[in-house]
Design brief:
Blueprint: E1 4-14, E2 18-25, E3 30-37, E4 49-50, H1 52-69, E5 72-81, E6 87-89, E7 99-100, H2 108-118, H3 120-127, H4 136-146, H5 148-151, E8 156-158, H6 160-169, E9 173-175, H7 176-179, E10 185-186, E11 191-192, H8 194-200, E12 209-211, E13 216-219, H9 222-228, E14 235-237, E15 240-241, H10 242-249, E16 257-262, E17 266-272, E18 284-287, E19 294-300, H11 304-314, H12 316-325, H13 329-337, E20 348-350, E21 368-370, H14 378-402, E22 409-413, H15 420-430, E23 434-436, H16 442-454, H17 461-468, H18 480-503
Parallel strand pairs: 1-5, 5-15, 9-12, 16-22, 22-23
Antiparallel strand pairs: 1-2, 2-3, 4-7, 6-8, 10-11, 13-14, 16-17, 17-19, 18-19, 20-21
Helix pairs in contact: 1-6, 2-3, 2-4, 10-16, 11-12, 11-14, 13-14, 14-15, 15-18, 16-17
């Protein structure tokens, strides 16, 4: 590790497939990056687990690499990672069993118990969300009901990134944004809910103290330094859950601009100055990594995933062409869709191939093409997919705006954002100006901004974003003719799934 007076900040992201770390300077320039993979365990259908020791080994690898490569003095570390997971520790700080992850589906019965104990409406009022299988609280209840011998040893419950903090510093701590994904946080108080804990018989002592994202809550210990090559006593800020960290890195820190991500899943992320839980439970409401702020989030489970499914199952010929031309297959398919008029000759696609979150909150939801005729071909089907995904994103935006949060423009991220055809469709369906934000190392990058604030280089998250994030300056306006075409089609789209569900 260098001893230069130049300052840098490290962001560490404990993702579902890998640990990613990035070092940046005070102006946001990337100095070094590293990643290390680890396995996903699926001991039963619907179960997803990982070994926290694997996270720690990967974290040590990437942090050691950055410490070797970075000449600047490391001023602070920011942590982020997959939300909702449960790491169970005993009184000695030893891991009791593999961590249960955000996409694990074993806790349906526990969710029912939570809503019965707290009250369905009351739970949403306090925690901002319904009881969903991915959240941390149902995992604690599941452990109690299914592994009593492990439950009897339980002394601490941590989120994934917070386990890494514990190993780095021997400190137990979390941040408000990640804690909001446990179902145990009082959103308004930005602290654990005594009411929910009492209803579920979960001792407050099991949970770490809650801090705001940029707050220094730990320092690298002698053991942490020896394991990673980092300097002892480097400050560690509380950090953020991955969505909030990515939003900070993308400059989504006020209610003027929302983030629309079109990756495997689709996300509409909007900043809010106040906690505005959706009474219907169709939106997520979490604390933001910006101190005192919140965010609303709608999730579509198979956005880019719908196009990827089609490409894998039905586009073998196009895959060969894309390989010969050296172009992206999904981009090639989108270009094919562009040869079809908007509306795909009255063909609709419901992108519910993996169930759906917003707005249906239905794990059993299924996808469909509706309106197929002899005149339709593959191009129409692709066009309908692109439009159906845009309509599903509009579902999320509509509900965000119903909560009084009305963004004026959208920043698009994920693979789908790079298709000009898809981008124009999304701009028209959501009827907002759009721009593509270059990927700046994802959540890990946002964590470096929180670290820079914690180190005192910037007074607040807003000034850190202004100095370190290159925000888009040119936004593509929605095409007025496309807006007019899609408005009645979206109205039809909203009626299709309820009708289909009622018929099945």
């Amino acid at each position: 590790m260098g001893s230069s007076t130049r300052k840098c900040f490290i962001g560490l992201d404990i993702g579902t497939s890998s640990a990613k770390a990035v070092a940046v300077d005070e102006r946001g320039h990337v100095l070094a990056r590293a990643s290390a993979d680890y396995p996903l365990l699926t001991p039963q259908p619907g179960w997803t687990e990982q070994r926290p020791e694997d996270w720690w080994a990967a974290a040590c690898t990437v942090l050691a690499e950055l410490a070797d490569e970075t000449e600047a003095a490391i001023s602070a570390i920011g942590l982020t990672g997959q939300m909702h997971g449960a790491v169970f520790l005993d009184a000695a700080g030893e891991v009791i069993r593999p961590a249960i992850l955000w996409n694990d589906q074993r806790t349906s019965a526990a969710c029912d118990q939570i809503e019965a104990a707290v009250g369905r409406t009351r739970l949403r009022e306090i925690a901002g969300n319904p009881a969903l299988t991915g959240f941390q609280a149902p995992k604690i209840i599941w452990l109690r009901d299914n592994e009593p011998q492990n439950y009897a040893r339980l002394a601490h419950v941590l989120l994934p990134k917070d386990y890494i903090r514990y190993r780095l510093s021997n400190m137990l701590a979390t941040d408000a944004s990640d804690a909001a994904g446990t179902l145990l946080l009082d959103l308004a108080k930005r602290d654990w809910s005594d009411e929910i804990l009492a209803a579920l018989d979960i001792p407050r002592a099991w949970l770490p103290d809650v801090h705001e994202g940029p707050a220094i809550c730990a320092r690298v210990s002698a053991d942490g330094a020896a394991a990673t090559g980092l300097g002892e006593a480097i400050p560690i800020v509380a950090g953020a859950g991955d969505n909030a960290a990515a939003a900070v890195g993308g400059g989504i820190i006020d209610d003027h601009t929302a983030l629309v991500s079109v990756g495997t899943s689709g996300v509409v992320f909007a900043h809010s100055d106040t906690a505005t839980p959706d009474a219907s439970g169709e939106l997520h409401c979490f604390c933001h990594a910006v101190p005192g702020a919140y965010h609303l989030m709608g999730v579509s489970l198979a956005s880019g995933g719908s196009l990827a499914w089609f490409a894998q199952k039905f586009a073998q010929a196009e895959a060969g062409v894309a390989e010969r031309l050296g172009v992206n297959l999904h981009g090639l398919l989108a270009d094919e869709a562009a040869t079809v008029a908007p509306g795909a000759d009255d063909l609709f696609f419901l992108p519910y191939l993996a169930g759906e979150r917003t707005p249906h909150m239905d794990a059993t939801a299924r996808g469909a093409w509706i309106g197929l005729t002899l005149s339709h071909d593959k191009r129409h089907m692709i066009r309908a997919i692109l439009e159906g995904v845009a309509f599903s994103l509009r579902d999320s935006l509509t509900r965000i705006e119903a909560q009084g949060v009305v963004p004026q423009r959208l920043i698009l991220g994920g693979g789908g954002a790079h298709s000009p055809v898809w981008r124009a469709i999304i701009a028209a369906v959501l009827n907002k100006p759009v721009a593509v934000q270059d990927d700046q190392e994802g959540p890990a990058y946002g964590a470096t901004l929180l670290a820079a604030v914690g180190a005192g280089v910037y007074d607040n998250v807003h000034s850190a974003v202004a100095a370190m994030v290159e925000l888009p300056t040119e936004f593509q306006q929605p095409d007025a003719d496309l807006v007019a075409t899609y408005r009645p089609r979206y109205d039809t789209f909203t009626r299709l799934y309820p009708a289909l569900r009622a018929a099945l």
